[in-house]
């Protein structure tokens, strides 16, 4: 059942990206994002074996604006690293690595909206599950996909 659900979500995301003539990064984000979100929701972990290749792939897809992509990765990842440093119970190391990779596809004007939207998704997830311990990875992935695709 889980496989069917994941495949359905991925298919829907790819269909939307195709209809909107989205950049290649949208398809990469959808493919990695569905798997990473499922893992994070179930195990509260974002494995390096997926987050690091995702970050590298997204960075390489931004070769036409490499300087801005690196800057976005440093700022978005650095902001999450600061939260992790000051409030380690709020965010895991996987979230920081994921944020750095996602920052590569976010333009500078989208960094603040991505942070706000990802936090809103995480808060909504907490309200839906009625728990205080919810993963932040799905919010980061959903926000980034939405802002770079739509």
UniProtKB/TrEMBL annotation:
InterPro entries: Prepilin_IV_endopep_pep (IPR000045), Prepilin_peptidase/N-MTase (IPR050882). Residues 28-126 form the Prepilin type IV endopeptidase peptidase domain. Keywords: Membrane, Transmembrane, Transmembrane helix. The keyword DNA repair does not apply. The chain crosses the membrane at residues 63-83, 103-128. Gene3D superfamilies: 1.20.120.1220. Pfam families: Peptidase_A24. Belongs to the peptidase A24 family. PANTHER family: PREPILIN LEADER PEPTIDASE_N-METHYLTRANSFERASE-RELATED (PTHR30487:SF0), TYPE 4 PREPILIN-LIKE PROTEINS LEADER PEPTIDE-PROCESSING ENZYME (PTHR30487). This is Prepilin peptidase. It comes from Lentzea indica.
